[in-house]
Amino acid sequence: MAAIRNLSVADIRRELARREAGATRLVRQRTKLAKRLATLDAELADLGVDSPRGLRGRRGPRGGARKAARRRRSRGGLTLVAALEKGVTVGKVVSPMEASAAAKRAGYRTASKTFGIQVATALAKATSFKRVGRGRYERLGTSTKG
């Protein structure tokens, strides 16, 4: 393209119109693809599969589904410490991995990818467990919130 100084006003207007038409076409194409992608995401969600996310774009479902996905506490279930106390017998020494299995057997429900880390943190903070070695916790007789 020639230097802008050498173009007439009519040439500049023609070029702007050409670019705007191209942008309009791209916007239509993007809208169509976004609808198709939303349909595919909904189908994957119905199958119980998380849709893969790219490096760009929105990071999850909109509205109520997003709020439900961020919910931190289960409603009306056991707390993690209560499940650990219920699953591990008094006097037994367990690792966080063994304790997490015991909590799940006791009825604690989670979909966390880092559940073992959460259990290790809960064991370290709970007053009903005592650290007896590296990665080993003993269940004490007292049952208190921790």
Terminal-residue CA separation: 71 Å
Helix content: 40-55%
Main structural class: mainly alpha
Largest sheet: 3 strands, antiparallel
Strand order of the largest sheet: 1-3-2
Provide the β-strand percentage band.
Answer: 5-15%
Number of helices: 5
Report the count of strand segments: 3
Overall morphology: elongated
| SSE sequence, one letter per element | HHHEHHEE
Number of domains: 2
Rg computed from alpha carbons, rounded to a whole number of angstroms = 28 Å
Average per-residue pLDDT, rounded, comes to 82
- The low-pLDDT segments are none
Write the layout of secondary structure elements.
Blueprint: H1 9-46, H2 64-70, H3 80-87, E1 93-94, H4 96-105, H5 115-125, E2 129-133, E3 136-139
Antiparallel strand pairs: 1-3, 2-3
Task: Give a verbal description of the structure.
- The protein has 146 residues and is mainly alpha-helical.
- Helix content is 51%, strand content 8%.
- The protein has helices at 9-46, 64-70, 80-87, 96-105, 115-125; strands at 93-94, 129-133, 136-139.
- It has a three-stranded antiparallel sheet.
- 15% of the residues are buried.
